[in-house]
Amino acid sequence: MYAFSNAVNSMHSEDIKLLMKQSSGKSMISFAGGMPNNDLFPVVEIDEIYNALPNDLKKLCFQYGPTSGFPPLVKSLEKILLKKGLPVDKNKILITTGSLQAISIITQEFVNQGDIILTENPSFVGALSVFETYQAEIHGIPIDKDGIDIDALKQKIASLDKKPKLLYVTPNYHNPAGIIYSPKRKIELLEVLSGTGIILIEDDAYSDLYFKEEEKYLTKSMKCCNDFDVEIIYTGSFSKILGPGFRLGYMLASPEIFEKAETIKQALDACTSNFMQILANEFINKNKLQPYLEFLRKEYAERKDLLQKSLEKYMPKEVTWNEPKGGFYIWLKLPNHIKSTDIFKESVKNGVVFVTGRTFDPVSKKDDRLRLSFANVPLEDMDKGVKILAEVMKEVFENRSKLKL
Amino acid sequence: MYAFSNAVNSMHSEDIKLLMKQSSGKSMISFAGGMPNNDLFPVVEIDEIYNALPNDLKKLCFQYGPTSGFPPLVKSLEKILLKKGLPVDKNKILITTGSLQAISIITQEFVNQGDIILTENPSFVGALSVFETYQAEIHGIPIDKDGIDIDALKQKIASLDKKPKLLYVTPNYHNPAGIIYSPKRKIELLEVLSGTGIILIEDDAYSDLYFKEEEKYLTKSMKCCNDFDVEIIYTGSFSKILGPGFRLGYMLASPEIFEKAETIKQALDACTSNFMQILANEFINKNKLQPYLEFLRKEYAERKDLLQKSLEKYMPKEVTWNEPKGGFYIWLKLPNHIKSTDIFKESVKNGVVFVTGRTFDPVSKKDDRLRLSFANVPLEDMDKGVKILAEVMKEVFENRSKLKL
């Protein structure tokens, strides 16, 4: 029941309705869940940490903490971010109740009703829903395998009557597109933004989940090497490296942005749970994080390999995709004139769920893609699920061809 | 260090500056902390619950949950609220990340910049800070020992050019005033609001902390017996009955209000921590809550008695107060022309901290009172602290008299 509620969290509302109708009583193979696998959580490690907490620290778990975050966790994060090359000396960390809260705070800080926010198209649906809730005007910019389309971005900025307040991007193992920005594209992006006054939100929930050590360098944040005149707010999350149930995220921003963000955070939930912050901090300080990340990278790489192989085995040749270098997702491209919603309707009937492309379009329109998550589907279902999906696709493609004749 | 950061959370910014200056290196007796005592948290019970969690449930702790709340906790809360007479059948529960988030959500749902919100004066400083952050125009209505001043409320509503959107009240063991609304005053309040379209927020963080069983009936919510044409949103919290570190609260509202609130909640932090919700739900279902509340009532009643006795023993006769029937606070009234800020300046020098009256005034002005919390001051310091405070007061009063001569 809860797994189901979770799985549908990031789905398009129309798709959920259809799923509800079709799935009653049926067991589904779901490629929809954009969350970590329940069986991979560090339950044993957290057990150990919890039961080893000194009594005073355990009591503190139950208490209010400072709005900006539990100070020892802030210190631990500073060390981690410093290792990643982030400029923690000139910036401040605000601990947030999940990184979505960071996005919400930034939006409240900078965006009034009707203001323009630029996003990638496709974009993380959670962020889109924040921007919509605050009634921003969202403009999506296409992406390719190396990142945001620079020409399209330039044209968009030039075409607008007023300056966009924010550009929101997820350069590492993009959700849903699975891509990672090339180093060149990052520089080009900063060049375009330089001097425009458009604030860049660099949302980095997945960078620790690279598959190959030798490709880790690709995850380097733009905020690390910002020689341009661009204000960058970097956001991060514990959701993919500890568990979304902790609701722990953070933002790294200039002291001026931090200060106002802290006031907004105070008015949102006073402070983030000390309980969750203390467990997370001990997880880092007892040297559990790095071994756990190594385990996760291996696990998710294996899952990606499995999905990749099944796709190669079954997918009709008209369907294409980029093999991801990290993260949770493979983003299938359908042939022209085929909508992922059409595939979805049939695939649900046959017991397979995924997230349709239009879900990630700011205007719910562009629908030539579909997102498969390999993070959360049971291993034994993966091959079978892809086979069913491929058969559904072939049928839909054939019917479409017949209609054309 | 953290205790200090916590204690100052609800203090006036000017008072914090002074405290920082005066307190360096000195040990302080603090009546300022409006949070539960660290030594009273149900650490042993939560240990037991955590270690008895079935493995599947423990895994679920780490996962996302539905935005509206972990369904079994919603069910448990429904039962609790039903027992309190609340109309759970016609309303819906939204679990929030602390009850402050509920207030934040309601404000976002109903209030635009410049809209009017009515509050009690004094009022809970956390709520005032939310209303300020969303740039509402806040009008404070005086209260007396039985609740909000009905005539003042009527006059205020009549005097305003536009209809206030909300009236925010904390009828049970008011923070800071320590009072509880009389049943008569509750009815009068509903009569005044009936048909005006002003939404009533009934914030009820303290009702479980009554000192005498025979006075429990006084805590009955207005939402229980709302025969009037008033929309009431009821908010509650686990902060005072489990621990603020859980960041768990909730709102009970009509399905229409709930629906929009859920969308806003989705954009604030996606969902409240499953980890915290699951522990809280087990705490209720393993029958730990009621015994723990009985323990807390006894503990806080004893602390109140101690503070009451010390006040009777030392306070100059010009200082008056109402003995509270529950909650955390005693609200001292100073003689005319004496400001609590003047007392604060001297008392900090002498090692005693409290929260000044103006902190709770929407316009930071009215300053003839001061708040003493008996919840969190070490028992052995209480008498000594009151003695010092009383001496400081006498000196300030005398100096003031001399100036007058």
Mind sketching the topology for me?
The structure is a homodimer of 405-residue chains.
Chain A: H1 2-7, H2 13-23, E1 29-30, H3 43-52, H4 55-61, H5 71-83, E2 92-96, H6 99-110, E3 116-121, H7 125-133, E4 137-144, E5 147-148, H8 150-159, E6 166-169, H9 183-193, E7 199-204, E8 232-237, E9 249-253, H10 255-269, H11 274-285, H12 289-314, E10 329-333, H13 340-349, E11 352-353, E12 355-356, E13 369-373, H14 379-404
Parallel strand pairs in A: 1-11, 3-4, 3-6, 6-7, 7-8
Antiparallel strand pairs in A: 2-9, 4-5, 8-9, 10-13, 12-13
Helix pairs in contact in A: 2-13, 4-11, 6-7, 6-10, 12-14, 13-14
Based on the structure given, which CATH architecture of the largest domain in chain A is correct? Answer: 3-Layer(aba) Sandwich
The number of E-state strands of chain A comes to 13
Domain count of chain A: the total is: 2
Strand % of chain A is: 5-15%
What's the name of the CATH homologous superfamily of the largest domain in chain A?
A: Type I PLP-dependent aspartate aminotransferase-like (Major domain)
CATH class of the largest domain in chain A, please?
Alpha Beta
Detail the poorly predicted runs of chain A. Answer: 1-8
Number of helices of chain A: 14
Secondary-structure content class of chain A: alpha/beta
Helix content of chain A: 40-55%
CATH topology of the largest domain in chain A: Aspartate Aminotransferase, domain 2
